[in-house]
Amino acid sequence: MGIERYKRDIERLIAKGDLLYAAMVLEEHPEKKKGIPEEQLKSLPKFRIDYQTWYSEALSCVSQLLPDRLDDFISHYKPLKPRKEILASNYTVSDYLPGISVTRGAASVVSPDAAIPQFQQQLNIVKAIRQRFESSLFDIRALVQADFFDDELDVATELSKNGFSRAAGAVAGVVLEGHLAEICVRHGLSVSKNPSLSDLYDKLKKAEIIDTPTWRAIQHLGDIRNLCDHKKTKEPTQSDVAGLIDGTRKIIKTVF
User: Fold this and answer.
1) How far is CA 244 from CA 36, 235, 255, in A?
2) Is 84 left (phi over 0), alpha (psi -120 to 50) or beta?
3) CA 119, CA 107: separation in Å to the nearest integer?
4) Which of 16, 125, 161, 206 has its CA 20 to 30 A from that of 43?
5) DSSP per position, 180-236
6) What per-residue string of b and e applies to 169-180 under the rule 16 or more CB within 10 Å gives b?
7) Domain at 140-254, CATH homologous superfamily
8) CB 252, CB 149: distance < 8 Å
9) Could you tell me the CA-to-CA distances from 67 to 36, 84, 94, 108, 167 in Å, in that order?
C-alpha cells in the first residue's frame, strides 16, 4: 500500500538525517568525539559527501507531504533572497558544504558551525511529516490518490514510448482532471457531476487556490489533452504528449 511506502521512506530519511546531524556536529566539534567508540565513528556518513542525496530525497517528501513547509525547508539549504553579506543569521547548508567562513581582520564573523541549527531545522521538518501520519487531521486519501495518479502517469509514459500518443495523452488528461477535481473538493468548492477541465481550473483560479501562471500552464495542458481526445487535422506529437505528461506530474506534485 502507498502509505506504508511513504512511512518507510520517512523513517529511512529520519534515521539517515540523525546520522548526518551527528557527523556534522563531530566534524565541527571534534572534541565531542571523546568517549565515542572508534567503530561507531567510522560508521558515520561524511556530511559533505552524503548530504545532497539526503536533501534531494527529503525535498521530494516535503513537497508531497508537507507542502506548506517547502519554502522553509529550502531556505535552510540556500537563501531564498539575495544577501548583502553572509552572517550567522543567514548562513545556510549550501555555505557549509564548501566550508565558507567570514572574518573581519582577526575576528570571526561566521564559521561553518552556523549551519548546524540550519540542518537541524530541516531534519525537524522531515520529522514533522511523521507526526502527520499520527494526526487525525492528515488526509490519508490524498496520499493514496497521489500514488494512483503516479501509476497512471507511468502507464501514459509507456504508451507514449510505444507510439500510442493519443491514448497516452488521454490518460494524462484524465489524471489532470481527476487531480483538479480532488483539489476543488478538498477546498470546499462545489463541482458539477461532469465538470470540464476548464470548469475546474477556472474555479480554482477564481478561489485564488492557483495563481495566473499556474492557470495558464494548466490551460496549455488542457489544449494538448483536447488535441489527443478529438480527431482533428493536427496529430499530437510525441513531444506534445511528453509535455502533457510532465506538466501533469508537476501539477499533482505542487498544486494542493
Assistant:
1) 54, 14, 16
2) alpha
3) 25
4) 125
5) HHHHHHHTT----SS--HHHHHHHHHHTTSS-HHHHHHHHHHHHHHHHHHS--SSPP
6) bbbbbbbbbbbb
7) Nucleotidyltransferases  domain 2 (1.20.120.330)
8) yes
9) 38, 29, 21, 37, 31
Which residue, 112, 84, 89, is CA-closest to 100?
112
The C-alpha cell at 53 is 542525496
Cell output for 47: 556530511
Per-residue pLDDT of the chain (256 residues; tens, 9 = 90+): 456 777 788 999 999 999 999 999 999 999 999 989 999 999 999 999 999 999 999 998 888 778 888 999 999 999 999 999 999 999 999 999 999 999 888 888 899 999 999 999 999 999 998 877 666 455 545 555 565 667 788 888 888 888 888 888 888 988 899 889 888 888 888 888 788 889 999 999 998 889 999 999 999 999 998 888 776 667 788 899 999 999 998 888 888 7
d(CA 98, CA 175) in angstroms, rounded, equals: 42
Number of Cα atoms under 13 Å in the Cβ half of residue 199 = 12
**Domain layout of the chain by residue ranges:** 2-134, 140-254
3-state secondary structure of 172: helix
